[in-house]
Design goal:
four-stranded mixed sheet, 4 helices, three-stranded mixed sheet, alpha+beta, about 240 residues
Amino acid sequence: MVKKGDTLVEVTLAVGIFSMIAIAIVAVMSNGVASAQTALETTLTREEIDTQAEAIRFIHSSYIANVNQKENPYAELWNAIVDKAKTFELAPEDSEIQSVVQFNPSSCEDLYNPTTSQTIGHAFIINPRKLASLNDPSKVVISQSQDSNMFRPASTYPRLVYTDKTNDGEGLLERKEELFSVEGIYVIAVKDNNTTAIGNDKSSAFYDFYIRTCWYGNKSSDASTISTVMRLYDPNIVSDNSN
């Protein structure tokens, strides 16, 4: 015997089951999209890091290849990089150099705060699209101390942002190659302190280049960081191991 109200109960139950299944499917899809986005951001960030590393290696290799030449076209670029280096010293864990090595910021914004950041005066970036500008190192080596407004937290993922296409006044679009901003990525060079220069000035036998990134992936409140370090030697400097 069919009782009044049985149909309504069945429909309500069916809608409830369907809603739970739909919510579960949407949750799985959302997690999948989030994972894909995180993987994409990580891949793009690593590419930015590799670009900086290769640009620094290119400058260093070109500098060494012409080191015995009377006029070394890459010497100014190399000097512009190492002039911003910190000096490595064995120091307490809370020291400035330890902050560079450990790289554990509480937030990405702290890296750009002049009162808390350890990068001010040392951080820089290489503009790979201007590597041919040998006569103007300031276009290749972009220093945070010289143009702090250009360095800012990442809006999406760490990257170098260039100006978009613009109208040249004759109805034609021309692509500009000028660097607009540096988001969530920078480099710090650290030089060995226990060295003796071949020349008159004391300098360093090697430089460690710390390439750092920081961003908030997939609307996360926790900072994501990827970093790497590479060591390059200056052929004009010898190490002093007497200490």
